[in-house]
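Amino Acid Chain and Its Fold in Token Form
===========================================
Purpose: to set a sequence beside its fold so the mapping can be learned.
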Amino acid sequence: MAAVLAWLGSACATTGFEVPEHRVERAGLGTQIAVLARDHDVARAARGIQAAFAETEILERGLSDRHLGSEIVRLNDGPRDEWVPVAPDTAELLRRARAIARATDGAYDPTLGPLAALWDLDGPDARRPRPDEIQAARESVGWWRLQVDDTLPRVKLAGEETLVVAQGIAAGFIADRALVRMRASGVPAGMVRVGNHVVCYGGRGKPWEIAIQHPDRRSETLGTFAIESGAVSTVEPGYRRLDDERVLRLLDPRTGQPVNGTRSVTVLASTAALAQATANALFVLAQDAPDFLREHDELRALILFDDEVEFASRGLPKK
């Protein structure tokens, strides 16, 4: 899938000494990862970029839904109704996922695994399940089935068929952690993009400018945001053909059916993990998404519905 997020550089030019921008892009996490550092110190920028990529590689091995040996896979294959020790990063990701699922009343749900496996919309065995199969899978879905200890890095899954999926939050979480590593290297300003999920810092006086492409007409821009720090995440899942019908590759955890009514959701938030998971939830909420946003003024969003009608939080540009 082509990226629908792109940074455009600086939102405004500065006079005097320009800070050089150093950018490296590589394949990873099933997408493209790009890291950009603004720094006069070339060696420090290189160290910061290297540290960011090293973090993505470490976390990908632990947080993948598919890599054999990852902690997510091990957790899904492990015992039920008892505490399972995990790495601190895994516990933190699942703790955040559970909190967002609760806040969105299950519109985003990290226990979507049984339904995702049933439909297999991203795999070779995609099919339209029978209603009784969907109902059976739904009985094992529910964010409350995932428990994360508040003090120790350990997790408990309730129910034999419950499965955790990190896909709806992991890319953003990994981008956040990569940015932390780069910042710890002393780089004064930086940005990390993992697919359609961007997080940045250090843009005071020289904001980062991020453009949101139209999901179907890539030459068109839905909006352009200039931010000093924070995160921007776009969810645009694409289609899969089943029985001569196109369905979106995103399931509603509450119904077990592919979502409809929404084409693209972009969320601005404090972290990329929060932005990504919330964007998934808003996609599911569809026409109810604006009401959710009015109750959560810490979040801002740009939504494109199927009928090309747009919703933009106050202060955000529309085309």
